[in-house]
Write a structure and sequence with these properties.
mainly beta; four-stranded antiparallel β-sheet; elongated; three-stranded antiparallel β-sheet
């Protein structure tokens, strides 16, 4: 079955299968088929027009999307990469990409410009080397503490 996956006041759901279709519009329901149409039921009642009061469901915002971060040079996906997105309405989305390099899903009610802010590179940790000279065996023990200074 093929259908329009967006069910909102701005779209018309269309269900199609085997060359037939059902359209659901604000003006009514339309059945279309290239073959014969039959309705099977124990009874058929065709009453006049009616109105139905119903509460419309809350729909997701109109615009929704995520970004996939890739290395500029190699185009490899950047997994677990820190990022910050700043939306036109002032909201900030801060996080780390998932294993597929995807950011969090961003939802807005209107089309907006999104600015990507690259994280600042932290200063690389200094490498310390220890040189030991001698002909005898020496047992050395080290403790490494990773802290930001």
């Amino acid at each position: 079955m093929i259908y329009d996956k967006q069910f909102s006041s701005h779209s018309i759901p269309i269900f199609m299968a085997g060359g037939s279709q059902v359209l659901i519009t604000p003006d009514g329901i339309v059945y279309a088929t290239k073959g014969s149409f039959s309705a099977k039921a124990s009874t058929h009642e065709l009453e006049g027009p009616k109105s139905i009061n119903m509460k419309m469901p809350q729909l997701n915002p109109y615009y929704s999307g995520y970004y996939i971060l890739r290395d500029k040079d190699t185009q490899k996906i950047l997994a677990n990469y820190p990022y910050q997105l700043v939306l036109q309405d002032g909201r900030k989305v801060i996080g780390r990409t998932n294993r597929d390099g995807e950011t969090l899903l961003v939802n807005t009610t209107s089309a907006q410009e999104v600015k990507f802010i690259e994280p600042e590179e932290k200063e690389k940790k200094k490498t310390r080397q220890l040189f030991v000279a001698g002909s005898d065996q020496i047992k050395l023990s080290f403790e490494y503490i990773d802290s930001e200074e």
